[in-house]
Design goal:
By secondary structure, the protein is of the alpha/beta class. The chain has a seven-stranded parallel sheet, sandwiched between helices. It folds into two domains: 181 residues, Rossmann fold (3-Layer(aba) Sandwich), CATH 3.40.50; 154 residues, Rossmann fold (3-Layer(aba) Sandwich). The chain contains eleven helices and 13 strands. 38% of the residues lie in helices and 20% in strands. It is elongated. The protein starts with 35 loop residues before the first strand and ends in a 9-residue tail after the last helix.
């Protein structure tokens, strides 16, 4: 995951650090909503025809465009095209809150019926999207809601991933790579961000409650992925016999495998989250990365667009829609890339 997706808090901190979770954590939305699988949101042929004849338009107002968000954007564009809704504007805020506000004001000059967006800073985002809400634009958010906005009144829905499923699959992948036993280093995201906090907690809970022969012997919070190498060195200096390391997304995972290579350590297995070309290459070439967990990124965009269309028809959409998680190993990189991003893997991975 690109750091731009995870810097800002959406609700109070869910990260538990070294605390033990007694009960299985559950995936919940930004305001504690229960998740609804995206497959439950369907449009009939009659509804598609009605939407396509409505002359509706959409704008995509992104926090920042990179591999993950570009795949979300493509999913939204493709679904809008299928529904006969014209995308009249698309912006990239470069992860700048002031610029995102300016982007919303700019696209409003095109009078869109819909805006799909990932709010950069939920606590201040009411000032970003208020102009669109007040004009009756259908707002669909990715990952984050806007503080003070009410579902069904101010926005249509939030579309994200099944966060427990992602963390759970990461634990299963690492346990299988370790043969079901051994010592693990747990690097969690030390920031108030529900997406990563829930995934991290799901990983930890699964290890502690499913694998009695695996012990988490060292834990370290990471606020900045630039510190991942130092954290990995500390873990390995205290526990040179680590069998596995969990990292909360791909960028810090690259720092961890850099340290392992420097130490000529080809034994310690690493699992991480979100598809990344260098990480996938390491896994493909028999390196330390044993598994990558991804979400159905493209489908996040597809169902964001579909949710907006359903709302235009007067249908109420559930507040928190989630896509599935994918567990990818060295033998399924190309298939996983296609299923996650709906695109062919880079040439280096072919």
């Amino acid at each position: 995951m690109n750091i731009s997706r995870i810097l800002w808090p959406a609700v109070a901190c869910m990260c538990l650090g070294t605390a033990t979770l007694a009960e299985q954590p559950l995936t919940v939305g930004p305001n504690g909503e229960a998740p609804t699988p995206v497959a439950e949101l369907k449009l009939t042929e009659a509804e598609i025809t009605e939407v396509s004849q409505g002359g509706y338009t959409a704008a995509l107002v992104w926090h920042e465009l990179y591999a993950w968000s570009s795949a979300v954007a493509q999913g939204a564009r493709d679904e809008f095209a299928r529904l006969g809704i014209e995308v009249v504007a698309e912006t990239d805020a470069g992860f700048d809150t002031a610029r995102q506000k300016s982007d919303v004001e700019t696209v409003m000059a095109r009078n869109p019926s819909i805006i799909v967006s990932l709010p950069i800073d939920p606590p201040t985002a009411a000032g970003v999207y208020g102009i669109a809400r007040d004009a009756g634009v259908k707002l669909v958010f990715i990952d984050n809601a806007v503080d003070g906005f009410t579902h069904g009144e101010d926005y249509v829905s939030v579309v994200s991933a099944d966060l427990f499923q992602i963390g759970n699959k990461a634990a299963v992948a690492l346990a299988e790579a370790m043969g079901g036993s051994g010592k693990v280093g747990y690097m969690y995201h030390d920031a108030d961000f529900p997406v990563t906090n829930q995934r991290d907690n799901a990983f930890k809970w699964t290890i502690e409650n499913t694998y009695p022969d695996i012990e988490i012997v060292t834990e370290a919070g990471m606020a900045d992925p630039a510190n991942a190498e130092d954290i990995a060195r500390g873990m390995l200096s205290r526990n040179p016999d680590l069998d596995g390391i969990y990292t909360p997304w791909a960028e810090p995972a690259l720092g961890v495998i850099s340290v392992l290579r420097q130490q000529d350590n080809d034994r310690t297995k690493v699992v991480t989250i979100d598809l990344n070309e260098p990480a996938a290459l390491d896994m493909q070439n028999g390196g330390n990365i044993a598994g990558i967990i991804a979400d159905e990124t493209y489908n996040i965009g597809v169902y964001a667009a579909r949710a907006a269309a359903a709302s235009l028809l007067g249908r109420e959409v559930d507040p928190f829609l989630v896509v599935d998680a994918l567990s990818i190993d060295a033998g399924s990189i190309n298939e996983g890339w296609k299923r996650s991003y709906n695109a062919d893997a880079p040439d280096s991975l072919q």
